Amino acid sequence: MADGTGRKLVLLRHAKSAWPDVPDHERPLARRGQRDAPVMGRWLRAAGHMPDQVLCSTARRARETWQLAQAGLEATPPASFDDGVYHGSAEQLLDLIRRAPPAARTLLVVGHDPAIAELALRLTATTSPASSRAVSDAAPPAVLDRMRAKFPTAAIAVFEFAGTWDQLGPGTARLTHFVTPRHLPGKA
Known about the structure:
By secondary structure, the chain is α/β, with parallel strands linked by helices. It has helices spanning 31-47, 60-73, 83-87, 90-98, 115-124, 132-136, 141-149, and strands at 7-13, 53-57, 79-82, 106-111, 156-161, 174-179. Helix 2 (60-73) links the parallel strand 2 and strand 3.
């Protein structure tokens, strides 16, 4: 496989969090989040979207989501925890992704609303005629509509693209999956 081909970006919004009287950064997962995160890890494994690099928010709920998803994944890819994922906008998150290690073929980002949802929508946007092929190969309109309507907790969007991480931008990737815990069969 050439260096510029066959990359996947997996965006995972943290699982459902609790609202105890603690600073936002320290909010833990709720019970539903603790159930959903490993389900999503198992789905990633079963669907063949095994990350070889993880970029995770430093927020407790995101770190717990990754820990539980990793258990469902049954793998231990290298993970880095970046405060920029917690505080960042969609554009700042894209900048972090563009700095991913060149050797990474599948990058999993565990982050927050609204940045994760906005980035997913931005990647599916058409910005030029050169990006028309990516859009024409995109997920069915119903999948895009569902993602536009709501990017719920523990939802996953998977994008495929040719090129290097620093070339990722609007219209350069193709949405191949949008999965929520609610829509998975056999959810615990």
